Write a sequence for this structure.
């Protein structure tokens, strides 16, 4: 609560083979993994979070079974689509009624039995085949008519541009099916801006244009139905972006502090709800690596194959340099990913935590109360030269929120300061510079004009 977050989202917790796993190789979709603790302990986690004013959401991945321990495929092979090959595992055949019912009842199970506050569903459940029952719509209806009748249940989707049709809201207040979708497109644009910063360069005009699009109207294509900005979850880092890197580095280990601070200020104060990856808020030193605990006979070449997959990247083109990539099967790989909470009180981790707390406090105080009633078309963005970006949102109470940002290495000159009170300037000297018509290198200024 002191950080300013409102919810915790768990990776899949269904039982899997071995002692540790990302959670996407589950084999018992109705049983929490024993290595995490007893089911009652998961219930206690949820209730403890509720007492602290936090919601708990779950990433639902029950449609996919891992490559080891899937004994359900023996008596019921027709329940699955395709055949297992190597580490690919198998997916439930959701074109069949029994497969769809399995997914729907699994969603209801976690919400009802553990009193979770919501679910994030994988976009792989989207169906495009004519004549099939729409699984995602049916699941949402079951939740709204089940546990959602007595309490609010949040339903989110993983990134997929086809997901837009599930994100319409009635009267801008009640979602018909799903509230929001994770906006990988915005993350990609922000990452490209920061990649340029790491190379000592400015982002291209194309990247800034994409960032403007994805922060203003999500990933909705031009000419398509507009969606509320709050229908897109923004994030700078997640388990996949970090874990898919050879060494599992976090952004603060790859990007200079000033550009990263500017981008954090961009993402946390935009109207779109932001998400943080564990430890991001205090620049955790621990990596997040790919780890698993399968039968060694099943994965005897896993480390070799994983290392070869990075051979095309600079820095990993020789056997010696690739040897630095951790073996997913080694217990030490998993242990390296466990956060060191003692570091939170030490610099620079304490400094980053203070930075995130102050930003989220501004968001909670000045922005969140003004979002209700916001309309889809009430947002405009423009590029400032080749390095700057301006976005203006008209919020639900008709106040105007403006972002001015320079994601380049030289100042932007000749600007006119918009009307409004400065909510945040990153760095702090960006505010007086803007008064003089200048936007400093790698700086962000947020302004709010309240309509009386």
């Amino acid at each position: 609560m002191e950080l300013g977050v409102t919810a915790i989202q768990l990776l899949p917790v269904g039982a899997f083979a071995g002692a540790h796993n990302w959670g996407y190789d589950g084999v018992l979709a109705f049983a929490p993994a024993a290595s995490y603790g007893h089911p009652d302990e998961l219930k206690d986690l949820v209730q403890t979070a509720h007492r602290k004013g936090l919601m708990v959401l779950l990433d639902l991945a029950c449609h996919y079974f891992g490559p080891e321990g899937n004994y359900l495929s023996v008596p019921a092979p027709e329940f699955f689509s395709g055949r297992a090959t190597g580490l690919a595992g198998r997916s439930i055949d959701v074109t069949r009624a029994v497969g769809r019912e399995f997914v729907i009842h699994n969603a209801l199970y976690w919400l009802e039995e553990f009193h979770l506050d919501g679910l994030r569903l994988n976009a792989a459940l989207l169906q495009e085949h004519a004549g099939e029952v729409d699984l995602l719509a049916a699941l949402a209806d079951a939740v709204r008519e089940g546990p959602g009748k007595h309490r609010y249940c949040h339903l989110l989707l993983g990134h997929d541009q086809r997901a837009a049709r599930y994100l319409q809201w009635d009267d801008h207040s009640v979602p018909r099916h799903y509230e929001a979708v994770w906006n990988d497109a915005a993350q990609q644009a922000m990452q490209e801006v920061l990649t340029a910063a790491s190379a000592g360069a400015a982002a291209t005009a194309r990247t800034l244009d994409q960032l403007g699009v994805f922060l203003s109207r999500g990933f909705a294509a031009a000419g398509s139905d507009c969606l509320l900005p709050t229908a897109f979850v923004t994030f700078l880092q997640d388990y996949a972006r970090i874990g898919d890197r050879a060494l599992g580095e976090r952004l603060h280990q790859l990007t200079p502090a000033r550009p990263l601070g500017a981008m954090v200020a961009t993402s946390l104060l935009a109207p779109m709800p932001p998400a943080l990856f564990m430890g991001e808020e205090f620049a955790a030193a621990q990596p997040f690596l790919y780890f698993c605990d399968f039968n060694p006979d099943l994965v005897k070449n896993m480390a070799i194959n994983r290392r070869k997959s990075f051979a095309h990247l600079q820095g990993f083109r020789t056997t010696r340099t690739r040897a630095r990539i951790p073996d997913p099967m080694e217990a030490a790989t998993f242990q390296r990913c466990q956060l060191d909470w003692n570091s939170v009180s030490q610099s620079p981790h304490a400094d980053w935590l203070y930075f995130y707390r102050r930003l989220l406090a501004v968001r909670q105080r000045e922005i969140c109360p003004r979002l209700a009633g916001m309309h889809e078309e009430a947002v405009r963005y423009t590029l400032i030269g080749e390095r700057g970006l301006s976005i203006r949102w008209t919020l639900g109470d008709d106040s105007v929120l403006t972002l001015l940002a320079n994601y380049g290495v030289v100042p932007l000159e000749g600007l006119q300061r918009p009307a409004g009170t400065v909510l945040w300037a990153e760095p702090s000297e960006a505010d007086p510079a803007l008064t003089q018509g200048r936007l400093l290198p790698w700086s962000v200024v947020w302004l709010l004009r309240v309509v009386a």
The chain has two domains: 7-370, 379-449. The first strand starts at residue 7 and ends at 10. The radius of gyration is 23 Å.
